[in-house]
Amino acid sequence: MKKEPVMPVDFAEAVLQTAFSELFSLVKDVARTGAAFGPQIKKIKSTLSKIDPIITEIHEYNKRLYCPKELGAIKDLMDEGKGLVNKCLRIHPLNLCKKYMYLNRLTEFDAKVLREFQIYIQLLDARNNGEMLWEIREVKELTACGSSLQSGLGAWGNLAAPEAPDFIVGSKVEESFRKIKEQLLEEGVSVILVTAPPGCGKTILVKKLCHDVDIEGKFRNIMFVPVKKPNLRDIVQKMIQHNGFAVPMIETEDDAVQYLQLLLQKVGQNPVLLVLDNVWTESQSFLDKFKFSKIKDYKIVVTSRYEFPDYRPVHHLNPLTHGDALELLRRTVTVDDSSMDPPDEKLLDQIVKSCKGLPWALTVIAKSLQGKDRSFWIEKLNAWSEGHSRLSRDIDILNCLKKHLDNLDGDPSIMERFMDLSSFPEDCKIPATALTDMWVELYKLDFDGVHAIADLHDLVYRNLADLVVTRRNSSDDDDKSYSSHYAMQYGLLRELAIMECNQGEVEKRERLILELTENSFPDWWSRQKQQPLGARLVSISTDGTFSTPWPNLELPEAEALVLNFTTDMQTKTYALPEFIETANKLKALIVTNYSFFSAKLDNLHVIGSNLRRIRLERIIVSLPSMGNLHLHSLQKISFCMCEINQVSTSNDAKISDAMPNLLELDIEYCDNLVTLPDGIYQIKSLRKLSIANCHNFSILPQQIGQLASLEVVRLNSCTNLSQLPDSIGSLQNLRFLDISDCLSLSTLPDQIGQMVSLTRINMRGCIKLSVLPPSIMKLTSLRKVICDQEKAVTWWPLKESLNSLQVVVFEEEPNLDWLRD
């Protein structure tokens, strides 16, 4: 590799550090004196405290690299703050008028520091991404390294450790926890193995370690990677994205090893902890590829059902002792209801014996028993006790757990939803919106999916799934989008769900869950005289080596089809199976590309007119060409992380003719989207339009006024959108307008006062929007406005005229930890 050229230290950066230090010192001095502006000064001190270590790191980093000139604006801001604080010190305590004015100025300055600093860091981060790409190209001369994937996607490249339980039980477990923690904090040990039978809490233990305050204090970079089916290229790409760098196209495992070493050298200036969770027995050679002895403070924790002889130290976890199991059951049964009577000790004892000391089984069962009376406990215990055998193999453990889950609370829908989760790949974050699309059609639920989300929370409550919320915002999902909610189903849970799905003859199963490797199909599929299948839910997953044309499959009863795939590195295409065309009852189609780069769909013509919901993720889509399809029953279509082509050809029919009854259009994280084709604005039935996190979306044309049926418009995080058209006033049925985090939006059209049905506005994070149009007083139906503190002062005076208005101040706790990556 070529020697990295040495660039001169930028003078502006040194000046910035000086200006920052002067302001920080002044603020700390004033905060200690207890001056009249104490609360505001202390808040500014808190903000500067978060920025201080990052300024230091920028200073060290830029000793090697040239820094862009936008530093000057930050330096000017620091000088402005110094002058403002000095002026405050000269104000007489009894001058209430000036004191009030400068209180507001201090509050505005604090918000401005956070805002401007974050914008600057985003620019700096883009520069740093470019530098890493330059180094990577030197290692492997790839002419096209791929564009950076969208930042902030909670569902894709995020390898943060999942949430840990509040407590762990068991003296031996606690002893293992202490020993592993000591080994991670000391020098020398590079790989630690945690091994145990399934259900003994390996993953829970390492989650707890990842969130330990001492471990987090040492390891500034913790990555948690589920590994059951090892794919080195995929894992390295996720690690690169997790650390905020552009994701390259990796063609071979040798390339992946080189990229991995480069990444670890790049981020290894701070200690790195890598957790490889649920590694299977054949993966010894795979694990070896993660070992780099020359990288300081880089440690690996491996969890597995198997012991790898070459990896030491090893920690063995075993089922809990009877006493520890009793303690776990007691604590879990009463954790959410301290007022309930103490559980019957004899019953607790019998339940513990039936669970064989498996922590996971105990917690699941405890959730199903919470709040129930003694007769319910006895009934369930009798059912569970029938036919219990001694646990000796994995399948026995699954059978034991199955008995505990049968007929939970007498509500079969819980098990139905539990099995449905197995339609998605193991250890992936399942978008709640995808589950909603599936469940609404399978179980005839409400269109917005409120009941479906309640069912998901029920699974989480019972420890049958995990819920990940990547961002909690102040709207509290008022518009029922749930776009930041994801479900996860781990290890034994998914194995159990699939085991349940596979009961009985294949022709009579309610669910058909297929995972195809290379070009191998099940024997029953390749029979010449195949009988029609009765499955209502069908899920087919294929890997990157799949290339065989689809054999025919008769699915006369299928109502939901989930297609999960990864593409070949060269073709990056995926052919929809022809048998979709004859699945006449199909209502929901969910197509997800799990490759890092978007793929093109072939055979679009097979999509039938009976479909009511379509969800496409990481797909190359031509919106105008979709006008050639016949989707007359379609009510909702969603595009997530798609490349959307808006170029129309002479052969393209009107998209409004293709889907004339569309009620909802959702577009998320589609970075190349600039505007929508005109045909969208001719779909008169459209009630909900959601365009979120599309950072290049900049044009909302006047034609939106033609969509008279719109009730919800979400333009969340469309950071390039600078204005709303005047015609928005024509949306007489609009109830909810979300323009949160539209950073470039500086004004609202005066015609907004004509939106007589508008009840809620979310304008959190609209940093340039400072003045409200006079017509805002005409919004007599307005009930709720969500905004930042500095915008709230413009709304509060309006409450005298808008009597029912509630102004909700959204103050997100500033969190700049991500900048250190």
UniProtKB/TrEMBL annotation:
<dbReference type="InterPro" id="IPR032675">
    <property type="entry name" value="LRR_dom_sf"/>
</dbReference>
<dbReference type="InterPro" id="IPR042197">
    <property type="entry name" value="Apaf_helical"/>
</dbReference>
<dbReference type="InterPro" id="IPR055414">
    <property type="entry name" value="LRR_R13L4/SHOC2-like"/>
</dbReference>
<feature type="domain" description="RPW8">
    <location>
        <begin position="4"/>
        <end position="155"/>
    </location>
</feature>
<keyword id="KW-0677">Repeat</keyword>
<dbReference type="GO" id="GO:0006952">
    <property type="term" value="P:defense response"/>
</dbReference>
<dbReference type="Pfam" id="PF23598">
    <property type="entry name" value="LRR_14"/>
</dbReference>
<protein>
    <recommendedName>
        <fullName>RPW8 domain-containing protein</fullName>
    </recommendedName>
</protein>
<dbReference type="Pfam" id="PF00931">
    <property type="entry name" value="NB-ARC"/>
</dbReference>
<keyword id="KW-0611">Plant defense</keyword>
<comment type="similarity">
    <text>Belongs to the disease resistance NB-LRR family.</text>
</comment>
<dbReference type="InterPro" id="IPR008808">
    <property type="entry name" value="Powdery_mildew-R_dom"/>
</dbReference>
<dbReference type="Pfam" id="PF05659">
    <property type="entry name" value="RPW8"/>
</dbReference>
<dbReference type="InterPro" id="IPR036388">
    <property type="entry name" value="WH-like_DNA-bd_sf"/>
</dbReference>
<dbReference type="InterPro" id="IPR002182">
    <property type="entry name" value="NB-ARC"/>
</dbReference>
<dbReference type="InterPro" id="IPR027417">
    <property type="entry name" value="P-loop_NTPase"/>
</dbReference>
